[in-house]
C-alpha cells in the first residue's frame, strides 16, 4: 500500500498523509491533472467520485461529487490556488451542496500536495490545514483519515492498469 503515514495535529490544525509510489513524479502528476484518472482515486472505493469540472491551473475550480453505497451524492470542490507542475499544487478543499456550490456550514481545508523523486519512484505529501481545531475534528469524526488513505491506496491499481 502506498500510504506509509497519516497523522493529525490538533494544536497545529493539520492533517498530513505521506505515500510512496513506484512511478515517476510526472506519472503521479497526470493522475491529478486528468479528470478521468482523478475520479478513479479521489473517492474511497465505497464512495466513487465523478469529476464534473476540472482544470489544474491556479484560479480554477474543480467540482465533483462522491456517490455513497446508498446512492446519495456528496458534493465537493477545489479552488486551485497554486500550481508548480509536476512538483506540487495547492487548493482550498471544501464541501458543496447538491448544485456543487460551496457549503459554508462545512469546513474548508487549505491543501498542498507535493511530489518528489525518491528511490526511482515518488514520495508524496498530502498536507491539509484547517481554520480551527473544531473543523479538523469534524472531518476526523467523518472518517477523513480512513477515506483518504483508502482513496490514495487506489493509485497502485491505476498505475498497474
TrEMBL record:
Q: Which InterPro entries match?
A: ASHA1/2-like_C, START-like_dom_sf
Q: Name one Pfam family in it.
A: AHSA1
Q: Which domain of life is it from?
A: Bacteria
Q: Which Gene3D superfamilies match?
A: 3.30.530.20
Q: Where is the Activator of Hsp90 ATPase homologue 1/2-like C-terminal domain?
A: 23-159
Q: Which family does it belong to?
A: Belongs to the AHA1 family.
Name-wise, this protein is Activator of Hsp90 ATPase 1-like protein
